[in-house]
Amino acid sequence: MSQYKHILVAVDLTEDAGMVLDKAQEIARNNDAKLTLVHVVEPLSVAYGSDIPLDLSSLQEEITEQARQKIDGLAASIDVAQGGQHVVYGRPEKEIHRMAKEFDVDLIVVGSHGRHGLALILGSTSTSILHGASCDVLAVRVGD
Predict the structure, then answer these.
(1) Could you tell me which residues are beta bridge partners of residue 107?
(2) How far does CA 71 lie from the centroid of its chain?
């Protein structure tokens, strides 16, 4: 009997995403588990402050479309069908927790840069995902 049946892979679409996908794919193969990919597009008003007096909707749509194209390419490289790849809009930790519950996921795989100093104190997306997750979380060390 396999330990994991459904793995949610949260990718940030940087060059490090391949390392996260490789680890998730290895675990899925060893457990005969299903893989689902997700990328969360954060609202620009959250990322850049809500005091910007510009209409950011067209830029937000363009970012979302580029994310869809990138996740399509990543999914194709590991044979994840269209239905197993998602680009969603919102706060990463909230959306990843929501999807993990919605899809009855038993493992979330996410990249972690292993920050130090102030970034460590303030936390990171991977730390936020870990806290409050309803299943196991694997943080794959990426970057330097």
Answers:
(1) 7, 136
(2) 10
Q: How far is the C-alpha of 24 from the C-alpha of 110, rounded, in Å?
A: 9
**pLDDT tens digits for 13-41?**
888 888 999 999 999 999 999 999 999 99
Q: CB count, 10 Å around CB of 107?
A: 22
Could you tell me if 33 and 27 are in contact, meaning their C-beta atoms sit under 8 angstroms apart?
A: yes
SS3 73: helix
Residues 6+ apart with CB under 8 A from 97: 129, 132, 133, 134
37 closest CA partner among 7, 58, 67: 7
pTM above 0.90, yes or no: no
